[in-house]
Amino acid sequence: MSGFAMLFALLVVIALQVAGVVNLSNHAAGWLPVLSVIVGPILLILIAPGFYMLQPNQAVAITLFGDYRGTDRVTGLRWTWPWMGKKKVSVRANNFISDKIKVNDLRGNPIEMAAQIVWRVVDSAQALFDVDDYQAFVRVQVEAAIRTIGSRYPYDDFEHQEITLRGNHDQVGVELRGELQARLAVAGITVDECGFTHLAYAQEIAGAMLRRQQAQAVVAARKTLVEGAVGLVEMALAMLSEKKVFELDDDRRAAMVSNLMVVLCGERDTQPVVNTGTLYQ
Question: What span, in angstroms and rounded, lies between the C-alpha atoms of 48 and 30?
Answer without folding.
Answer: 28
